[in-house]
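Regression test case RT-17, inverse folding.

Input:
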């Protein structure tokens, strides 16, 4: 009886998955690059154009503000991309009958297949996104230097902040409140990504649209419950600064547990789909 998880088999399958879909990854890279470049141009030109056209003296602080704006945009685009990735990658596999049959015939377990696809949707897509965005930002800075030749000192996006690397010169206050908020946002992202990853196995078609509609309906119902329930509304609006740390830790812990739950559901769905012929 073969083991449930073999590092050698897992590495071979991961290599097969990565090398077997170069065109899809190239499409993702080009799409992220073009979208990022277009959006960065739309964000940057008005900011620097005001200084250039009015003859106002240019100072480095203006570019720090521009870099911060581009960083925030990068974060939002990153979250959108990693929630879209599972649905697209699974859709590309499920709609290709030859690819699907070839994948099922490989001597790997469901767990190895599941972990490999999760790594591709998280770590792999992160590398694709960061590489494409950094390249787009560099091209954007080059174009800005052509548009505004008298302005110097353009700075790239401080990508290190996405990984907790940076200094206070960028104006991001490094306090416990900042890190607590960042922890909740990160855990919320993991939960959201795990939900989309699970539904990509649950629905073979239009999983992103279906999941998004369900989440939007849930958020509307959740907000309406707080708004139209007086006791819950008062609880939401009360000053809780003294217990903020405990609350953020609690929310983050709940998000991590829920993310593991949805990942486990996705693995169960994969095993069910492989044991019962559904195509």
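Golden output:
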């Amino acid at each position: 009886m073969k083991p449930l998880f073999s590092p050698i088999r897992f590495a071979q399958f991961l290599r097969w998955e990565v090398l077997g879909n170069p065109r899809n990854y190239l499409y993702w890279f080009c799409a992220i690059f073009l979208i990022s470049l277009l959006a960065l141009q739309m964000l940057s030109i008005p900011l620097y154009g005001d200084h250039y056209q009015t003859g106002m003296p240019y100072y480095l602080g203006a570019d720090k503000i521009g870099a911060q704006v581009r960083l925030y945009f990068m974060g939002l685009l990153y979250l959108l991309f990693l929630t879209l990735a599972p649905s697209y990658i699974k859709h590309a596999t499920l709609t290709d009958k030859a690819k699907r049959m070839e994948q099922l015939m490989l001597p790997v377990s469901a767990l190895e297949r599941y972990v490999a696809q999760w790594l591709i949707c998280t770590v792999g897509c992160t590398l694709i996104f960061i590489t494409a965005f950094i390249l787009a930002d560099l091209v954007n800075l080059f174009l800005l230097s052509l548009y505004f030749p008298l302005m110097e000192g353009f700075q790239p996006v401080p990508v290190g902040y996405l990984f907790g690397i940076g200094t206070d010169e960028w104006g991001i206050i490094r306090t416990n409140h900042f890190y607590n908020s960042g922890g909740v946002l990160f855990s919320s992202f993991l939960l959201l990504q795990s939900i989309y990853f699970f539904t990509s196995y649950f629905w073979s078609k239009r999983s992103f649209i279906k999941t998004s509609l369900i989440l939007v309906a849930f958020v509307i119902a959740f907000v309406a419950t707080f708004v139209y329930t007086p006791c819950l509304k008062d609880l939401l609006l009360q000053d809780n600064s003294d217990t903020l740390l405990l609350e953020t830790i609690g929310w983050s812990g709940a998000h991590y547990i829920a993310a593991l739950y949805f990942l486990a559901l996705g693995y169960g769905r994969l095993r069910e789909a492989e044991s019962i012929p559904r195509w």
